[in-house]
Amino acid sequence: MAAKRTTVRDLRRHNRSMLLAKLFFDGPLSRxxxxxxxxxxxxxVSNVTGELVADRLIVEAGLVESDGGRPxxxxxxxxxxxxxxxxxxxxxxxxxELFDLAMNRLAAVDHPMPAGPDxxxxxxxxxxxxxxxxxxxxxxxxxxLGVGVGVPGTVERSPAVVHAxxxxxxxxxxxxxxxxxxITLPLFFDNGAKTLGQAEMWFGAGRGSRHAxxxxxxxxxxxxxxxxxxxxRGSTSSAGEWGHTTIVYxxxxxxxxxxxxxxxxxxxxxILDRYRKARGGKDIPGxxxxxxxxxxxAAAAKSKTAARVLEETAGYLGAGIANLINLFNPERIVLGGxxxxxxxxxxxxxxxxxxxxxxxxxxxxxxxxxxxxxGQDAVAVGAATLPVAAMLEEGADPRESxxxx
Length: 405
Ligand SMILES: [Zn+2]
Hints:
about 20% strand; globular; alpha/beta; binds zinc ion; single chain
């Protein structure tokens, strides 16, 4: 008996999840369209959408004409059902952004951390940032479905512990630290490259593809590998550490302790260090990595040294992308992150040429190389999708399923 009850409940959850996700991504839709597009019977669609309306997850959104019959009622996810917060813990600062359920950005704060991401400072910045976005919008804390946090490194879950060797985070108990600092909202964590990947797959340059690699290039380098629509995680969720694949045997020292990693050449820190050496050790103008990288890109128009450093960077990135193409056969490679956008904005044709020169002809021919469409906020947008993904998967309010956790 118990087994049968579970099966019925699973089926109900599956149907709720399927219809809710359909309405979230493709709504507004009529019940008729929902039935056609999901293959569920008209009776099931009618029952399940009735429940979802009663639970206030979805609302009516006007009428659409039908051929000859009565006009059909359109349904969509209620943007006012709740709000979500997305947090980008980067190496140069913490971004906190508040969204409604239609993913409209209601508020954003950005706290630079010039000294780097010390765990205690990050916890303070997150706590302060969450309070600030709630205050500035007068959004009630009770309306928050969840807070997603994108972090550098690998996330071990429940409770979330972060391992980010390159920035000296060895087993940082970030979830517990946030709880100890007074955060009571439902929390969700993932690697920043993976949240960027989810944002681009849902709303940006990855939309419509089943096989893609979304690359995050900031101070460090990471990637989200999407195979058949799902992020490839590996045995302990650390898959996608593209930045620490070897691009030059016995090459430059990397922050991870190894030598010749892609990150040591194509991460912002590696690019700027190569530029500094090319300038005979002379300082690069700019107060932080972002303004220094902007200075390098701007200088390339008149400085041969700057142009050469950028050309070489495009070469390393292109070779790294060719490795991704040969390994994963993606339809699309999306280049994002603040440094990826700064370099890619100017060097995309050179990056494509270098990728072509190093990749096998056939898989290169089916892969397009594009820039990220969601800009510098993509990690935060993706982090905010973590509670939404939990809601779509369960077909239910994530506040209920995570309240006990
Ligand atoms: Zn490395």
